[in-house]
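task queued by scheduler; priority normal; single chain, no ligands, no partner chains; default sampling; output format set to structure tokens
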Amino acid sequence: MSKNYSEEEIENKWLPVMYRQEDKPVEMMCHIEWLKKSGFKKVDVLWKCYNYGVFGGLK
């Protein structure tokens, strides 16, 4: 992966397009449900602040 992109190209081309396509945040409860459906037990939110959170469970 030896492609070199200029900072301008990254900010103007790649970030707006790729970020909008790939980064689609969902509510924390969706993540918790996904963990439960994946077999995790005792799923809990350990820390949250504004748009950030740490959550997990035991398998």
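post-processing summary
- The chain has a mean pLDDT of 81.
- Residues 7-58 form one domain.
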